[in-house]
Amino acid sequence: MRPRSLTTPLILVMLGAFFLWRNLHPEAPVFDLIANYWPFLLIAWGFIRLLEVLVWRASRYPGVTGGEVVLVVFICLGGMGLFEVHRHGIRLTPAIFGEQFEYPVSSQMPAAGIKRIVLDTPRGSIHLTGGETGQISVSGQKQIRAYTREDADRTNGRTQLEMTVEGDRLLIRSHQDRAPAEQRISDDLELTVPRDVAIEGRAGNTDFDISDVNGAVELRSGRGDVHLARIGGNVRLDIGRSAAISASDIHGNLDIAGQGSDVQVDNVTGQVTLNGAYVGSLEFHNLSSPLRVQGARNLELRAAAVPGTISTDLSDLTADNVLGPIHLVTRSRDVHFENFTDSLELETDHGDVELEPGRMPLPRIDAHSTSGEIELALPENAEFQLQATAERGEAVNDFGSPINTQVEGRRAMMTGAVGSGPSIRITSDRGAVAVRKQGSAPSVRVPQPPRPPAPPRPPR
Amino acid sequence: MNGDVSLIRAVRGPIMMITVGALFVLNNFTPFGFRETWPILLIVFGLLTLIGRGANQPPGGPQ
């Protein structure tokens, strides 16, 4: 008779022992241990099989069966997954197990001599308001996720909020790093501070809501949303990943760096710089100094000031009342620019462009679209020198004889001067170009060039 | 002779299993990732097959 393998009963025993251990010591970081040590299971299994083969040598022991190979592959995939999850700092244990305990947080101190407040809260939320007060007061709640109330109490004792004065700086620390790895801790804090302080925040995963502060604000965090209102100083945000950032009534410069989704900026006196890829909607309104949007592959924008509005998402960009020089590079957005001055340089890959400078004297315009129609609407009394080219498309002219239209094959060109104005150059590689009088409907409808049918996809 | 061959075939699976385990231990505890060390699996498998073939052939050479 062929001897039966010992591995199945041994694996049963090990599974049983493992679950017993987990039940008796729920606080042990079992999953973290498994994530690191699972390969030893394969080694042990291999040794048992090797021993079996050598001991039962006489009785033609069969090799590893197909089922075992499949199981080994699954163990490897699962183990690798666990290890990667563990390595990237995601703790599975506390998120799934345990109970949430809450503790009140409250602290107060006189603010005399304090010029800068440094907040060190790795996880949670911070709501800070400046006011006419001589006190710095903190209140709020701490959440601890743990297995037992005793564990949570112990952690709460170790992570008391600490306020340390260093010269003119006040350091507010929540000491979340002192909590054991298998517990999760976060602080939701409300702070009231004197208006004239500067604020610095360092965080891992924290939402900030800061208002009515006259000093500078500097926030650095890995992830979180930020809402700022009525800030007197310069603002600098370095947020790894955000869903929403909003800033309104900022009297200094505003610098935003990172990645995220929505950004809304209103009423800023200083320069505004947005650096990074933001894929949601961007809105800029009433900016008195230069605006600069950069760092994203599909949008680059510079303007001297934005008394009106610029709003954009991944498919459209609309601007009204913008002071030039303006520089705009986009990949695939329909662009609609109204009421702009000085000069506009525009470059787009896919998308239609509508330009309506509105005011006299006209700005200098240089617009290029790889694929899309460009339409220019000018005031009736406008003076300009035009050079418009549609490499493969129609040219439409509403200004009559001063402008000369030529068609050569598939290429259409309009050149000419009306009075002595600035130079306007518009070029579309594939699509029509049109110059019409503002306020009137286009005399000739610009037909959309027929789009070629999409080539069939190659079979996968 | 045949006994040796079947023995070598039988130990091949367990030895491969131990090797895989050892490579993942290296992956988890040393800078040598599985991405770099996987060719060792080919080498070990090749060597085991080679030994199997060697044992299969009588000392006089192939017939």
Textual characterization of the structure:
The complex is a heterodimer of chains A (460) and B (63). Chain A contains 6 helices and 30 strands. By secondary structure, chain A is of the alpha/beta class. Among the domains of chain A are: 89 residues, no CATH class; 146 residues, no CATH class. Chain A has a 30-stranded mixed β-sheet that branches. In chain A, α2 crosses α4. The longest helix of chain A is centred in the N-terminal third of the chain and has 22 residues. Chain A starts with 6 loop residues before the first helix and ends in a 23-residue tail after the last strand. Chain B is mostly helical. Chain B has one domain. Helix content of chain B is 79%, strand content 0%. Chain B contains 3 helices and no strands. In chain B, α1 packs antiparallel against α3. Chain B is elongated. Classes of the chains: A alpha/beta (460), B mainly alpha (63).
Pair of chains with the largest interface and how many residues each contributes:
A-B, 30 and 24 residues
The global form of chain A is flat
Query: Strand-residue fraction of chain A?
Result: over 45%
Q: Return the structural class of chain B.
A: mainly alpha
What is the mean predicted local confidence, pLDDT of chain A?
A: 85
From N to C, what is the helix and strand string of chain B?
A: HHH
Distance between the termini of chain A: 51 Å
Mean pLDDT of chain B: 78
Number of helices of chain B: 3
The biggest beta sheet of chain B, please?
none
| Fraction of helical residues of chain A | 10-25%
Compute the gyration radius of chain B: what is it? 15 Å
Rg of chain A, rounded, reads: 33 Å
What characterizes the major β-sheet of chain A?
30 strands, mixed
Brief overview, please?
Helices cover 17% and strands 50% of the residues of chain A.
Observed structural traits:
heterodimer; A: 460 residues; alpha/beta; 30-stranded mixed β-sheet; 6 helices; 17% helix; 50% strand; B: 63 residues; mainly alpha
